[in-house]
Amino acid sequence: MDGITVKGHQIPETEIEERFDTPGGPGGQHANRNETAVTVRFDIGSSSLPDGPRTRLMARLGPVVETTAARSRSQWRNRALARKQLTSLLEDALVEPKARRTTRPTRSSREERLREKKRRSRLKRDRRPPEAE
Fold first, then answer.
1. Which of 15, 45, 68, 98 is the most exposed, having the fewest neighbouring CB atoms within 10 Å of its CB?
2. What is the rounded distance in angstroms from the CA atom of residue 74 to the CA atom of residue 80?
3. Distance separating alpha carbons of residues 105 and 113, to the nearest angstrom
4. What contacts 117, CB < 8 A, 6 or more positions away?
5. Which CATH number fits domain 4-94: 3.40.1010.20, 3.30.930.10, 3.30.160.20, 2.40.37.10?
6. pLDDT for position 1
């Protein structure tokens, strides 16, 4: 594999660290003896990404991103799945949220708010004990 591409930015293979472990849980001898679980790790701080995307990723995900895949009995499939998860995490973090456009409350919503305030006021006033004369 030659690295991954995230939103037009290429992350070289040398910056992606992979670790293989035995998966936990049931599976008998195959699961106990074969290292099929894959952990993919990417150090954002020391990456070759441009400053803009790097600072955005650092703010959203922290200095290091790590994901693990152990769904399949195949190391190759788990490796592909872990890389896909990493790519998805990075792409989601790079999405710019839409700027909120400020709007004014409608006339009916303002009137409804005041009606509700009056109703609550009446309800609380009716709970009070009667005043002594």
1. 98
2. 10
3. 10
4. none
5. 3.30.160.20
6. 55
Evaluated on CA atoms 32, 34, 38, 43, the torsion sign reads positive
pLDDT in tens, 36-91: 899 999 998 877 888 888 898 889 999 999 999 998 889 999 999 999 999 999 99
Alpha carbons 16 and 94: distance in angstroms, whole number: 18
Residue with tokens 């990456």, as numbered in its chain: 47
Backbone angles phi, psi at 63, to 5 degrees: -75, -25
Q: How far apart are CA 124 and CA 4, in angstroms?
A: 62
Q: Is the CB of residue 46 less than 8 Å from the CB of residue 58?
A: no
Domain boundaries in the chain?
4-94
What is the three-class DSSP state of 9? strand
Look at residue 89 in the predicted model and tell me its pLDDT: 93
Cβ–Cβ under 8 Å, residues 26 and 45: no
Q: If you search the block for the tokens 């895949």, which residue do you land on?
A: 69
Over its C-alpha atoms, the chain yields an Rg (Å, rounded) of 27
